[in-house]
Amino acid sequence: EEKKRFSIQRLNKHQMAAPFTLRKIGVPPNSANLTEARRRVFDFFRAACRSIPTIMDIYNLQDVVAPSQLRFTISAQIRNNAHVTDPKVIDLLLFKGMEELTDIVDHAKQRHHIIGQYVVGEGLVQNTGSKDQGKSDFLKNFYTSNYF
Fold it and tell me: What is the C-alpha to C-alpha distance for residues 21 and 27, in angstroms, rounded to an integer?
């Protein structure tokens, strides 16, 4: 009987731990309609903008990018999905965005990841000086068309 009680207690601990981990990750319930999904997008944007000073401090980005440029990058990424009208897809995109924001704030990425993905990758900073010194027109056209 003691073994049974121990296994029941063990099972209860695992059952109690599962909902806590889901809350910790921040899995939102599905949006009921497009209006609620839109509100959640604005809440996400607000949360992301409020975390910009922390991100700037963690990754020491003051010499590379301004907070307003990061805000513009976040809004541009949200606008890239403005055509989506299905609330379930919007919830999925919000989950991915929250996961990315959590990884960045928790310092799960390195400085060059942030710079490459959100500063240089978005075209805010372009260092074309050394690449444009190629000898052929082909290479110059290649570098301008495939700059990342």
Answer: 9
**How does the average pLDDT of the chain come out, rounded?**
77
Residue range 75-92: average pLDDT? 93
pLDDT in tens, 8-19: 445 444 444 444
Residue type, 129: G
Backbone dihedral region for residue 136 (phi beyond 0: left; psi -120 to 50: alpha; all else: beta): beta
| Long-range contacts at 19-28 (CB < 8 A, ≥ 24 apart) | 25/99, 26/98, 26/102, 27/95, 28/91, 28/94, 28/95
